[in-house]
Amino acid sequence: MGIQYFYNFCLTQVDDTDLNSDILTAVRKSYFSDFERIRDRITYDSEGISLLYDYSIERNKPLQWTVKRPGGAVVQEVLPSDNGKYYLCCYQEDKLFKRLLFSKFHTLLKVEYMDENGAVCRSLEPRKIQGGLCLLYKDNALEEPVALFAAPEVSEKPVREELTAAFTDYTAIASTDEGVIWFLSDAQLSHYREFVDQVRTGVAQMIEKSYVDDAAPLYEKINAKDFNIKRNLSASLDIADAKPFITPAVPDVPIEDVMATDQSFADIDNGSDQEVFDVPKTENPEDTPKDDPTDKSAKPDKQIMADGAVYSYFGELDDNDNRSGYGRTVTDLGRTAYEGEYRSDKRSGKGAYFYMDGTLCYSGDWSENVRHGVGVGISAKDGSMHIGKWVNNKPEGNGVRVAADGNVKFVCKELSDGTTALMNYLDNDTVVITKYDKSGARISEKIISLANE
User: Fold this and answer.
1) What is the pLDDT of residues 115-132, one digit of tens each?
2) pTM, 2 dp
3) How many Å apart are CA 9 and CA 111, to the nearest integer?
4) DSSP for 263-298, written as a single string
5) CA nearest to 248, candidates 346, 376, 68
6) Which residues of the chain are under the pLDDT cut of 50?
7) pLDDT tens digit string along 255-264?
8) From CA 173, how far away is CA 153, in angstroms rounded?
């Protein structure tokens, strides 16, 4: 969508405002999120000095804003302009240093900087361009205004960290609804892209060198231990201390059935008989048990005691009154822990298991209360999914790991000769292909850069 709101911006060579902790930015961001009135009076310590902020922002009224030092000296104040516009004036050593012009709707229109005589010598102004916004930079020392463009986003974390620490060739910085963004001239953009390419090359070389020279186990270098791929049988989807998974992409769970809560959930890796509360999952009206567990008048087919709680079961029973066939086990609140097939009172066959916040934990094959066969597991810890083969509650053998943003992290393939190939996709568009023998020992390793293909 691009930038919709500017909260504040400044020239890097003359203004040292920290936009990451700027109170004006925080107040304006909060206001534009719901357009509700914000009124407060707070004391904020800045560089060892306590500043008193007194402000109010609401629809159809000019901003009320004053910042004072101890003793009453004004640091920032609002002065009216024409047609309902207003200036937020900032002072340094009792002289006007900077002023921000706002519309009557609190839209930031322009920032101006003053010289020693109080005259405007520099300014920044948003301008619409094809495909988004730019900042028009004017300086009395320049013959023509200069268009400044937002720095292209860098997705790779190590490259982004290096840029933040080392790159300084940008003219302005802005706090926006898209975050804090650098703005650069055409020449600076060219320098920026060259710098990014150099950093990417350096990071790729460092990774390649580490694979060649480092004798540490492979799983420590590529995080394959996050899932059990023959290297670490004890590492699986760690859900013991996980937080609720916010946006499950599960097409077969009706949206009206998802009831998000902040409750924690139980670890099912121990293969216990205890159920985890959650939201009913239904396929078709024909597949739904006749008794609706959300209906308080519905009579369950069986009641189960587990961990001091009473659960209700709606579904098929065998001659020994055990859950066998298709059914659902729910709490007294009507929340489903599991829906699917049972045998001899245990989860066996095809079934879906839910976290307590209503999101899917696992859907697929079960055997004797454990995930065993082929299925999809969703980690509430980071939103990633493991799709493939499961053995005794753990991913093992053929499988794919997909991050919450849709990126493939690695693919594991069991080959016909009994060896295993692991293709690990790194953030810098590099793939590490490793082969293991039948015992799990590494046979070979190859690094491929997709960016150069």
Assistant:
1) 999 999 999 999 887 667
2) 0.48
3) 7
4) ------TT--S---------S-GGGS-SS-TTSTTP
5) 376
6) 1, 217-296, 453
7) 222 222 222 2
8) 14
